[in-house]
Amino acid sequence: MKKLMILGGSRYALPVIKAAHELGAYVITADYLPDNIAHKYSDEYCNVSITDREATLKAAQEREIDGVISFACDPGVVTAAWVAEKMGLPSVGSFKAVSILQNKGRFRAFLTEHGFNVPTAKGYTELEEALKDAGLFHWPVIVKPTDSAGSKGVSRVDDPAGLKAAIEYALSFSRGKEFIVEDFITQHGFSSDTDCFSVDGELKFVSFNCQRFDAKAENPYTPAAYSWPSSMTQEHQAELAKEIRRLIKLLGLGTSIYNIETREGTDGRAYIMECSPRGGGNRLAECLEYATGVKLVENAVRAALGMPTVGVEQRPYDGCWAEVILHSDRPGVFDSLWVDDSIADAVYERDLWIEPGTPVGGFSAANEAIGTLVLRFETQERLQTVMNDIGNYCKVILRGGEV
Predict the structure, then answer these.
(1) Same domain as 171, residue 212
(2) Final residue of a domain: which of 38, 73, 89?
(3) Does the bond joining 140 to the residue before it have cis omega, within 30 degrees of 0?
(4) Virtual torsion, Cα 19, 20, 24, 25, nearest 10 deg
(5) 362 and 278 in one domain?
(6) How far apart are CA 170 and CA 197, in angstroms?
(7) Is pLDDT of 149 > 70?
(8) Chain mean pLDDT for the chain
């Protein structure tokens, strides 16, 4: 029986555990939070900080694991590559290559060096150095930690006067006390944040979507919904697929799922914003399986265990799909979820993670999501009608609130 170590214990690990069990693997979940939900479904729990590479490596060696994966869990991605390299286990690529992908500053520098479309960007460890460089950028800018996910610590700054506060906010979410400042790329249509898959260094499955936000949320840069297909032009989708292939080749990557953020700018250029060798959060791989039938989660497990992938190929979407990240726009106590009867026939899956009476936040970061609603429409026109006004079709009701 092969042993798979999963770094992180959030609910996004649950489909990974299920897929691993269906493949006959023994599953070990690892993090420093014993009450995390995934540990209830794994075969063994290992209490170790997944940002501590040496401690995680020791735990993996003691358990003689056959594979390691960090799925939808940014803090564990570099550690997984480290453990895999030290133990000679299957991995998407070298520890060096994965480290470039996982650090926003190093990734921007790599893209610039190799001639990719890149916004003006620079990574820093010192606040004063960034303030001196204010004239380097084309305002507005985005300031974010180089090593965090889920939109934590991210803010837009419209002029240099707000830069210091934004940097301090970003640093409060950075484990390595690093941050990046980059030009804000004004997007044409919607940006994309979705999953892709390579096999033996060849991009076999690529997807683009519409990443949607909630302007009323405490953090308007936290993704609040997704829909497929993308609003990007076919020309830019083809260009980005080509550039993703080139990136994979340059870094010497092999077989893996990736969460990739891309954007079509109003300047007429297409940009790769982020590329992480892991499944995306917010159940993106599961939604893509619903839409295309390609089993991305299962194949991510196969890759981690060194097993052959099965059925990873480009397939069309069966209809038009959307995923709503259920959340409250303000703090309070959850009462219920209201979905308008007019879209009842479009509800493919309703996945609520909390019970009535549970306190909720105002969606300042992705970890304040309380569930997902997956929708399928026959036409793009119907999808756009609903998703462009989703607040009138779906609402999280707080105690004392009204529909």
Answers:
(1) no
(2) 89
(3) yes
(4) 180
(5) yes
(6) 30
(7) no
(8) 95
Name which of 337, 339, 338 is nearest 353 in CA terms. 337
Is 99 part of any domain?
Answer: no
pTM over 0.85: yes
Say yes or no: 246 and 380 in one domain: yes
> What's at 213, amino acid-wise?
F
Number of domains in the chain: 3
**What local confidence, expressed as pLDDT, does residue 105 receive?**
86
| 238: containing domain | 192-398
Kindly report the CATH number assigned to the domain that includes residue 12.
Answer: 3.40.50.20
Same domain, 59 and 157: no
- Domain C-terminal end among 141, 164, 183: 183
Are 162 and 235 members of one domain? no
**Whether residues 234 and 350 fall in one domain:** yes
Residues 21 and 134 in one domain: no
Residues 393, 250 share a domain = yes
Q: Is the dihedral of CA 201, 205, 208, 212 positive or negative?
A: negative
For residue 187 the two structure tokens come to 């997007």
What pLDDT digit, counting tens, does each position of 58-77 carry? 999 999 999 999 999 999 99
> What backbone torsions phi and psi does residue 396 show, to the nearest 5 degrees?
-90, 120
Q: Which residues contact 242 (CB under 8 A, 6 or more apart)?
A: none
